[in-house]
Amino acid sequence: MTHHPRPLATARSHDPRPIRVGLVGAGPWARTMHARMLAAGPETELAAVWARRTEAAAEVAAPYGARVAGSFEELLDLCEAVAFAVPPAVQAELAVHAAEAGKPMLLEKPLGSDLPSARKVAEAVAEHGVVTQLVLTKRYHPATREFLRRAGRATVVGARSCYLHGAFLGGDFATPWRLEQGALLDLGPHLVDLLDAAVGPIATVRGTGDPRRWIELTCEHTNGAVSQASLSGSVRLPRARTRVELFGPDEELVYDTAELDHEECWPVLRREFAEAVRSGRGNGIDAQRGLRLQELLDRAMA
């Protein structure tokens, strides 16, 4: 079966019809976020679902009247764009094929289970000129964008941050890849992305501790600032805690997700992905950004 990449200057630029998205995966995140978000529209519709277990794909597809693809190749034929909700190793393998087929992609973080596989994804995306968008959830909340806007005008000399929860202790998200890789690859992309964007580009990063229990990162930024990040998915808390504190000669600037409603992220994410697919221009939160974050996390592990 031959697929022909669609050029970046797409004919859908002013087409009001929803983008037909195929979903890869049928786990908890596919059910609770991806399928529900994509089917809610109006910018997108859930066209089809494929998973290695057909019965699981059918359960995800049924509430939205989506097709169940018999293979990944069939999914590519049924959609204009692809969304991934699978473990990093699976995403990295299939995303290369989707890029070769010219399909815009909604990608999860991390891009791959290791740096070489992440690099293959980014290289395939660049080679075939496909638009991508990364599901760095918090980046799509208005409060996050306001924090980053204010941080861009501040002089920061130091920062402290944390992303902590107990999801790895049990439940739907205590999945094999998370238990094996730990918080660094699961939570790390979110926090390192915020520090890199709010404080300034990270030049060096060092990690201490065990990613499966608790890991501390110390980052030195190109502007001379120093930041620290605490990461764990294995501590008992009443709810997830994400906090970034910026310090400098002016009043401290604090970002805290305790009061944020993450439901506000999904319409923004969906709208921007659809706009990217239609226009052929992404929002910068893409595979290349994902590769940079994975390069930084790889240095921390080293």
Which labels suit this protein?
single chain, 302 residues, alpha/beta, Rossmann fold, Dihydrodipicolinate Reductase, domain 2, 2 domains, 6-stranded parallel sheet, 6-stranded mixed sheet, 12 strands, 22% strand, globular, Gfo/Idh/MocA_oxidrdct_glycsds, Gfo/Idh/MocA family oxidoreductase
Structural category: alpha/beta
Supply the number of helical segments: 11
Separation of the first and last Cα atoms: 41 Å
How much β-strand is present in the residues?
Answer: 15-25%
For this structure, what is the CATH homologous superfamily of the largest domain? NAD(P)-binding Rossmann-like Domain
Query: How are strands sequenced across the largest beta sheet?
Result: 3-2-1-4-5-6
Give a description of the structure.
The model is unreliable at 1-11 (pLDDT under 50). The protein is an alpha/beta fold and 302 residues long. The longest helix has 15 residues, at 265-279. It is built from 11 helices and 12 strands. The strands form 2 sheets. It has a 6-stranded parallel beta sheet, with helices on both faces. 39% of the residues lie in helices and 22% in strands. The protein folds into 2 domains: 19-137 and 265-286, Rossmann fold (3-Layer(aba) Sandwich); 142-259, Dihydrodipicolinate Reductase, domain 2 (2-Layer Sandwich), CATH 3.30.360.10. It holds the Pfam family GFO_IDH_MocA_C3. It comes from Streptomyces macrosporus. This is Gfo/Idh/MocA family oxidoreductase.
